Amino acid sequence: MSQSKEKLDKASNKPRQPSLVGSIIADWLQQKITILLILVVLASAYAVIYYAWSNRQLNTELQRLLEDKDKLDIDWRHMLLENNVLSEHNRVEQIAKDKLNMQRPTGEQEIIIKAP
Fold first, then answer.
1. What mean pLDDT do residues 92-103 have?
2. Cys staple from 102: which of 36, 55, 96, 113, with CB 3.0 to 4.6 Å?
3. Contact by Cβ (8 Å): 34, 41
4. HEC letters along the chain
5. Whole-number Å distance between alpha carbons of 7 and 17
6. What residues contact 16, with CB distance under 8 A and at least 6 apart?
């Protein structure tokens, strides 16, 4: 009677071996919480790796931008110095006299224009 309860192989009337895939799936279904925890741990590990990589990329970008900012600050200071040197009154007056043959007008040559 025990053989009638068990599944019998059709050809040889021997008890049938359970399939490996079926056994694995049945075992997984019994271990749902364990499998869920394994998947959560794997997802968490992936998230840690991704965010660490992203953080490194952002830090690299930040360092590059700070270097660019420092270079631009240096250029700005040089431009300010150059502007101050080029706009000095004595230099402008000297160029006007030497290159353009200009001279300061006398009192009689000055003309005052009044707005209506």
1. 86
2. 96
3. no
4. CHHHHCCECCCCCCECCCCHHHHHHHHHHHCHHHHHHHHHHHHHHHHHHHHHHHHHHHHHHHHHHHHHHHHHHHHHHHHHHHHHHHCCHHHHHHHHHHCCCCCCCCCCCCCCCCCC
5. 9
6. 6, 7, 8, 9
Q: Tell me which range, 16-20, 48-52, 102-106, is most confidently predicted by mean pLDDT.
A: 48-52
What are the structure tokens assigned to 5, written together?
């309860």
Give the count of alpha carbons within 13 A of 41, CB side only.
6
pLDDT in tens, 15-36: 677 788 888 888 888 888 988 9
Crossing angle of the two packed helices 20-30 and 32-86, in degrees rounded to 10: 70
Tokens 């240096």 locate to: 74
Q: What is the structure's pLDDT at 8? A: 54
pTM exceeds 0.90 for this model: no
Query: And the tokens for 64?
Result: 């590059």
- State the Cα–Cα distance between residues 30 and 22, nearest whole angstrom: 12
